[in-house]
Amino acid sequence: MENSRDYSDATKSVHAGVGMNEHLAVVPPIYQTSTFKFHDSDHGASLFAGKEKGFIYSRMLNPTVLAFEDAVAELERGHKGIACASGMAATHTIFTALLDQGDHVICSKAVYGPTTTLLSEIFSKFGVETTFIDTSDIAAVKEAVKPNTKLIYVETPGNPTLVISDIAGIAEIACDVGVKLAVDNTFMSPVLQKPLDLGADIVMHSLTKFINGHADVVGGVVVVKDERMYQIMRRALNHTGGMLAPFDAFLVHRGLKTLAIRMKTHCLNGQKIAEFLEAHPKVNWTSYPGLPSHPQYEIAKKQMSGFGGMIAFGLKGGLESGKILMDNVHLLQLAVSLGGVETLIQHPASMTHAIMKKEARESAGISDGLVRISVGIEDVDELIQDLKQALDMI
Ligand code: LCS
Fold first, then answer.
1. What's the CATH code of the domain at 199?
2. Atom from ligand 1 closest to the CA of residue 159
3. Are residues 275 and 207 in the same domain?
4. For 350-364, what is each residue's pLDDT tens digit?
5. Cα–Cα distance, 93 to 236 (Å, whole number)
6. Measuring CA to CA, how many Å separate 24 from each of 19, 63, 164, 234?
7. CB of 185 closer than 6 A to ligand 1?
8. In this structure, are 42 and 155 located in the same domain?
9. CA-CA distances (angstroms) from residue 79 to 116, 225, 368?
10. Does this model's pTM top 0.85?
11. Active site residue ranges
12. How far is it, in rounded angstroms, from Cα 163 to Cα 108?
């Protein structure tokens, strides 16, 4: 689409990255090829030397993947995207690209479990040190900065607690001390939050979640602000090999077309279910960014254009009651992952965040009784009815 950067997110979701192609197909073709022919030896050498633009080998770049990368970069209002085989591959690409032995990282305490493990058990082997802090506390972020800090890595809202960090506030600190700020924007999608506009240098997503939205692809993406950072990230991905496959890029690009409209329903349904849970006598606490009781409600209103579909809550009967609830829902499905059209329920302490040490989980606010719902786009009254009957079983 010409000049699509000027359009709204709803229009961009449909048209971004869908350029012209040889046969004028409305949907661009899937280039299901591992490699590309050169016209002659000079052409091949010229492509490898970067003197000419073109495709060489699909680990390096593929037209179907590139079309999706352009689309997501437009939605994030970034320079370019780098599509990866999973959200973890995207996070790994950021760390590989930016960190050297002896560097220090500041990372949110409440992040997807394997992100903590990647830093504390894998990158630590290569001499990278990490401080995990509550990044919703700006003073704590400032205090955690060391002379060797290279990167601040923030997930907001954090998985699964929904704790919210002030992106613009942290970006200011990062800028003052000369370190990069990367934001995991998975829970919001580019439609509800634009970290680059708020001052972040890098944004990443697990595409597996809202961007694809249909629970049928695992993928990730990094979006950067300038060509220099793009080259650094692309090089890291090329050499570690965790790129997105063309067919998966096609599916995720197809999912992206309905992102804006899906997010509207996730937000409407999320709000209604959060209000239902907060008012229910068997519910002890509810964490949802759209509830005035959320500790960072004011920041949420400032930096997010909607509150999303993720809810964390605890029942008065703790984990035992949570298990009864999870084992008795019919329409909600007991499964990990999130951001799809279908509503999922899961127990982070024994599932998505089981990899973390219990003390680390508790320090991040992930109590054993916490239950997480990823609210889908079904009829919200039917979802509430299902929750109601399962809560009645407790
Ligand atoms: N970032 C966030 C915020 C996530 O929630 C996840 C996965 C990732 C990164 C990693 O993405 P992946 O490699 O799985 O594409 N979160 C999951 C969850 O909460 N349940 O299952 C996966």
1. 3.40.640.10
2. 3
3. no
4. 999 998 889 999 999
5. 6
6. 9, 15, 44, 29
7. no
8. yes
9. 28, 5, 41
10. yes
11. 59, 112, 184, 209
12. 10
Task: Identify the residue whose C-alpha is closest to ligand 1 atom 19.
Answer: 337
88 Cβ closer than 6 Å to some ligand 1 atom = yes
Q: Is the CB of 220 under 6 A from ligand 1?
A: yes
Nearest to 273 by CA among 393, 185, 371, 369: 371
Q: Is 336 in the pocket of ligand 1 (CB under 6 A)?
A: yes
Report the share of the chain in percent with pLDDT over 90.
94
Per-residue pLDDT of 77-128, as tens digits, reads 999 999 999 999 999 999 999 999 999 999 999 999 999 999 999 999 999 9
Looking at 229, 256, 283, the residue that finishes a domain is: 256
Final residue in a domain of this structure, among 219, 238, 256: 256
Tokens of 199: 């001052």
145 and 202 housed in the same domain: yes
Domain that holds residue 358: 259-391
DSSP annotation string for 212-280: T-SS----EEEEESSHHHHHHHHHHHHHH--BPPHHHHHHHHHHHTTHHHHHHHHHHHHHHHHHHHHH-
Tell me, in angstroms, the distance from the centre of ligand 1 to residue 142's CA. Answer: 27
The CB-based long-range contact list for 241-244 (8 Å cut-off, 24+ gap) reads 241/59, 242/84, 242/85, 242/86, 242/89, 242/92, 242/93, 243/58, 243/59, 243/62, 243/65, 243/83, 243/84, 243/85, 244/65, 244/68, 244/83, 244/84, 244/85, 244/207, 244/219, 244/220
Distances (CA, A) of 369 to 7, 109, 124: 44, 18, 30
Burial of 378 (C-beta count, 10 Å sphere; 0-12/13-18/19+): middle
Other Cβ atoms closer than 10 A to 50: 8
How many structural domains comprise the chain?
2
